[in-house]
Amino acid sequence: MKKIFLTAFLILASLQLSSQDLLDILELEAPVTENIVSATFKGTRIVNGHSIKNRKDSELEFIISHRFGRVNTGFEELFGLDQANIRFAFEYGLSDNLTAGIGRSSFEKTYDGYLKYSLLKQKTGANSFPFAVSLFGSIAAKSQKAIAGNERTLAESLFYVGQVLIAKKVNSSFSIQVTPTYVHRNLATTDADPHDIFALGVGSRIKLSKRVSLNAEYYQQFQKLESINTRNSLAFGIDIESGGHVFQIILSNTITMVEKSFITETTGNFFGGDIHLGFNLSRTF
Amino acid sequence: MKILYAFFVCLFLVSFTNAQERFLTKKGMISFFSETPIENIEAQNNQVLSIVDASSGKMAIAILMKSFMFKKALMQEHFNENYVESDKYPKATFKGDIIDFDNITTSEITLAIKGNLTIHGKTKEITIEAVTKKTDEVIEMTGNFFINLSDFDVKIPSVVKNNISEKIKVSFRLYHKTYKK
Most buried residue, A125, A214, B27, B53, by most Cβ within 10 Å? Predict the structure, then answer.
């Protein structure tokens, strides 16, 4: 009798198995796929500094950025709007993992070029990996004529920046990036100024709605220029996305948009009202 | 007692044959197409899972949204991030019945399929038509149908209203093979 019950149980169990929901079978049969985490940041910049976001293969982006003067200059200067630093830039995806960019800022008539390489990607599913790593290198050349007697050679006008971008999309609405940075200047204004400055950047993105996010960014310097009274760069931005555009509205204590400048040459005191309004407008082709 | 045994053996055999009458594909193709005067948008997914139970005429489809491939990578990112919210709703599913499945033959005939389609967490009952044929090893189904984005709560922002069609054409080609556990 026991045997019969056992057989009955087994058969019923197998029946049960055979009549299981078809969708459940598909669930079982689904291969474990590798899933690369995307949209950690929406723009190639968190605010001023680069994010791990790369342009995709053969994608060309044109970016116009403005930083106005300080808000606390008052009504006569229309809260800084009379003065503006403008940067035009092209960014191009040489491959999905390698982006090149060139730009020109009106501030100190600076030309800059960069390469950004996506080394490791954050992944879920098969071969999961907890964060993404990109390498960034840029060269900036100051082309503004020096005052007589202080002429520079081309080499003396060059600045180099190297960064390791380490980013994690914690969940669909929060991403964070840590950015160890090295800045080298060929020419130091005074002997007291260091040629090499190390800094650590921290940036984050909080999604406010499907197409709007709030970004924040801070760069802590470990050495500082002595010839000018520099401060650490602090910036907040709102990303608004629409189709092929990302529009960023920015409040920061720096007027510059090139890494070597805003990381090591920022002088504004954010909480003293030295705030520059700015925007980044990009169009992808 | 012997009768009881025989009964269970029969039951077992029935359940066994049932299991053998399933047809599955892991490489089904589903594509969609949005046509507007400004631009056409299309994406294709070649990793669709689909199963047909030939004993009951029931079928089920599971579609991983992130497996839809677009020509422009940025479009793909927007699709997943802003439109279908793939992190929240990773899959679209369909579960339904093939009406008059017994009529299926080795030559192509059109059959209706009625069932529930779930996209973006919203479910809608649909009836579609598919050209089908069946051999001992294969059940083939192809066809296309239209869906309305508003039925699945997929919102189009006003700035791109002219770029994305409200009616989306969905095409499918499912080549099921005998499924063995």
Answer: B53
Is the predicted ipTM greater than 0.85, yes or no? no
CB-based contact, B74 to chain A, within 8 Å:
yes
B111-143 burial string, b = 16+ CB within 10 Å, else e?
bebebebbbbeeeeebebebebbbeeeebbbeb
Amino acid at B91: K
| Domains by residue range for chain B, with CATH | 22-178 (2.40.128.110)
* CA–CA gap between residue B52 and residue B10 (Å, rounded): 24
Cβ <8 Å between A284 and B50: no
Residue A146's CB is within 10 A of a number of other CB atoms, namely: 11
Inter-CA distances, A216 with A47, A49, A100, A219, B83, Å: 7, 10, 24, 11, 26
What is the least distance, in Å, from the CA of A260 to any CA of chain B? 29
> Angle at which helices A2-18 and B2-20 pack, to 10 degrees?
20
Report domain extents, chain A: 35-284
Which helix (H) or strand (E) segment holds residue A283: the answer is: strand A276-284
- Mean local confidence (pLDDT), A265-272: 91
pLDDT for B9 equals 60
Residue in B8, B52, B88, B177 to test binding to A, most A beta-carbons within 10 Å: B8
- Contacts of B97 by beta carbon, 8 Å cutoff, 6+ apart: B56, B57, B58, B59, B113, B114, B115
pLDDT of amino acid A235: 96
Beta carbons of A259 and A233 less than 8 angstroms apart: no
pTM of the model: 0.79
Report yes or no: A170 at the B interface, CB cutoff 8 Å. Answer: no
Residues B81-122 pLDDT 10s: 889 999 899 999 999 999 999 999 999 999 999 999 999 999
pLDDT per residue over B67-84, tens digit each? Answer: 999 988 888 888 998 899
Q: Quick one: which of A215, A217, A220 has its CA closest to A235?
A: A217
Helix then strand count (H, E) for chain A reads: 3, 14
